[in-house]
Structure formats: C-alpha cells, structure tokens
Amino acid sequence: MKSRAAVAFEVNKPLEIVELDVEGPKKGEVLVQITHTGVCHTDAFTLSGEDPEGIFPSVLGHEGAGIVVEVGEGVSGLSVGDRVIPLYTAECRECKFCKSGKTNLCQAVRATQGKGLMPDGTTRFSYKGKPIYHYMGTSTFSEFTVVPEISLAKINKDAPLEKVCLLGCGITTGIGAVHNTAKVQAGDTVAIFGLGGIGLAAVMGAREAGASRILGIDINPDKFELARQLGATDLINPRDYDRPIQEVIVELTDGGVDYSFECIGNVDVMRSALECCHKGWGESVIIGVAGAGQEISTRPFQLVTGRVWRGSAFGGVRGRTELPGMVDKAMSGKLDLDPFITHTLPLERINEAFDLMHSGESIRTVIHF
Ligand code: NAD
Ligand code: AHE
Ligand code: ZN
Fold first, then answer.
1. Candidates 104, 263, 271, 366: which one to mutate for ligand 1, based on the most atoms within 8 Å of Cβ?
2. What's the CA gap between 279 and 261, in Å, rounded?
3. pTM of the prediction?
4. CA-closest candidate to residue 341, choices 84, 35, 36, 60
C-alpha cells in the first residue's frame, strides 16, 4: 500500500514528504495507521548524524499513536480497530531482561531494531523500489507503519490520540525516571537540568512524588514560567553565574540535592548534575542522549563519597503493561498532557517542528496526518 511519510533521506537535510510503499505485516507484526506523532529531541539527534545507530534513508519518529489496520500471522493480542501506542522499548515478557524484573529493556527485537529492520531482518518500507529503513522500531513519521506486536501498547478505545501520542516517549520518560528510576519520595529535593518535554515531565513527576524542592535549570529562561506552573520551586539560569552551577546548587540546598536528572544530552551538564548531589546519598539520573564518541567524567572521589550515577531509558516503563494505565490517568484528568502541546502541525510542515524545537519555542509539536 501507499503511505504519506516524512523521510530522512540524508543526514542533516530536511525531511522530504513522499509517498512510500509499505508492505503488509508479516508473522508477529501489525500494520498501524498513525494518526498523530510528537517530535522528540532524539529524532533531531539522529537526523543530525550524532547517533551511532542512525541509518539513512529512514522514517524517523517514535512518539506516536494510531489504530490497528491489519494484523500478521500469529498476532493474538491485537485486532483491527484497536488504539495503540508504538513502543521503542518492546515488552516480550519472555526474554531474560523481561523476566529479570529488574529492567524495562526488553531485548527481543533490539538487535534488528538498531539496524533499522524488522525482526526477520528486512524492511517494510520502500521508495522507487529502494529500501527505506525503520527507526527505533516505530517510524511514526509515516501514516502507515509496521511494528512488532510486542512493541505495541493497546490503549483505551476512546483515548484522544492527538494527546496520548506524547506518552510514546517524552512525558512517560520524564515521569517514569522520577518514580521508577530514582524513586523520589515525599520531602526529597530534586534538581532537573533541561526544561524541554522530558525535563518538564520530570518536574511534574517530582511534584507528584511530593518533592519539597524542585530546582529547574535551563539556559533558556523562556522555559521557566511553564516549569513553575508544573511545580518547579526554584528556576536557575547557569548563565547568570560565573562559577560552576553545581557549586551554586550545593549552596542553595544545604549540601546538595537528593536527586538530579540530566534531560539535555550534554556531557558537561551530566557532570554538574552528578556533582550537585548531596554527599553520602545523592543520586543523579542521566536521561539525555549524547552524541557518538562523547564520554562522561568526574573525579572518582565524587562516587567514593556516596553519590550515585544512573541512567534511565523510557523512564523504566514496561510499555505494554504500564502505558494503558497512564493513558487512563490522562483521560481521567489526573495526568495533564495539555501543557506539553505548544504547537500542532500537519505532516507536510514537520520540518517546522524541528525548527521550533531548535529555537527553543516549542515543548512538543504534535503532527497530524
Ligand atoms: P528539548 O530540546 O525539548 O529540551 C532540552 C532543553 O535543554 C531545552 O529547554 C534547552 O534550552 C535546555 N538546554 C540545552 N543546553 C543546556 C545547558 N547547557 N544547560 C541547561 N539547559 C540546557 O529536548 P527533549 O525532547 O526534552 O529531550 C531532552 C533529552 O532527552 C535529549 O537528549 C533526548 O534525546 C533525550 N531523551 C532521552 C530519553 C530516554 O529514554 N533516555 C527519552 C526521550 C528523550
Ligand atoms: N542509539 C543511540 C542511543 C539513543 C538512546 O539512548 N535512546 C534512548 C531512548 S531516546 C528516546 O527519545 C533509549 O531508550 N535507549 C535504550 C535503547 O535500547 O536504545 C546510541 O548511542 O547508539
Ligand atoms: Zn524520544
């Protein structure tokens, strides 16, 4: 079948809107009509060429929602018409990782996913007879996409797809990192570096957890008002200080915060985020994705003296099990997705969504097909 899609033909070039050919779903796969997709900084990161797993030409996009239009052989848990959110972190419930109960990082399809292929090692997309690669197992910048059944969360049939698409990445990641990875408790102090979609969701999660102080740090002060509305108690622009921001935070918080979150992808900020943690127990969670070849560093003494460095992918969330509940929470009004949607655009204007992100004007642009 034909599908309108925004294709990344080359590194660092605008996406091109074309009509792709999409093959039907094979064994264990599902054809999904994407109705809406967010644009996450990770899409821009991969398009920039910084992602060691970036493959071109490909269909980016991993923050979408849609409707099942066809199921392949052996698919038993999904039917035509079901509302779904594609998952870049699958949940097979059978692999060593799923069974461990220690991680959400299912590895059942991860190897082929990282090569831009479906689990059988082939691609379902082509253009003018040449293969186009998948991305993160989701490729939500195509109106029709093929996804393994284990990479789809079935959600409430009445879910507003134009909003809950954001649960496919950003909001789930930020909130999940606070609750599942750091396990922030009432009264804890928290510092959140980077107040984009991920950082603001972390702010929201920290308020939900009952954090006593939530420091929001960003070099773009335009982000501060919304951060305050979502629960940040202190807003800090590192450019207002002529000394390392970790020193400022340690002073402001009587020795450092209990938890910090890096939501930017900047390895220097990752260091600040670790070093602003309290001696003896402070924990820093890396969420931001850094480019190929970049490495983090600190004095080992920072860890010797009790600080902990962790990372979080998709907020530690097991998508098939937990996303339906998050969608219900959003539908009941207990999880407000509206503040994150600063712009909406049709697929044809998707490149503007990247511009809005880079200029710092948007939190999330939702693309409709
Ligand atoms: P975004 O562009 O919306 O937000 C980034 C924010 O960081 C912006 O507000 C920007 O002003 C701020 N910033 C940039 N440089 C800064 C600096 N030196 N100091 C302080 N603030 C600075 O991006 P996003 O969509 O929120 O994504 C944030 C990061 O999280 C990206 O690296 C993305 O790839 C990553 N990410 C990771 C996961 C995961 O599962 N680990 C999931 C989603 C996104
Ligand atoms: N492909 C990159 C790493 C990219 C990365 O870290 N991705 C995050 C999700 S970002 C969503 O916006 C993640 O969950 N990673 C876990 C995984 O299994 O990919 C690289 O460096 O190779
Ligand atoms: Zn993302």
1. 263
2. 16
3. 0.98
4. 36
The interface predicted TM-score (ipTM) is 0.99
pLDDT digits (tens, 9 = 90+) for 18-40: 999 999 999 999 999 999 999 99
Give the tens place of pLDDT for each residue, 335-355: 999 999 999 999 999 999 999
Of 148, 128, 126, nearest to 136 (Cα)?
Answer: 148
Distant-in-sequence, close-in-space partners of 131: CB < 8 Å, separation ≥ 6: 123, 125
What's the token pair of residue 338?
């509206």
Please state which CATH class domain 2-168+337-368 belongs to: alpha beta
The widest CA-to-CA distance across the chain, in whole angstroms, is: 63
Question: Would you kindly state where each structural domain of the chain is located, as residue ranges?
Answer: 2-168+337-368, 173-312
| CATH for the 173-312 domain, from 3.40.50.1100, 3.40.50.720, 3.40.50.300, 3.40.50.620 | 3.40.50.720
What lines the ligand 2 site, CB under 6 Å? 40, 42, 51-53, 89, 105, 110, 169, 289, 313-314
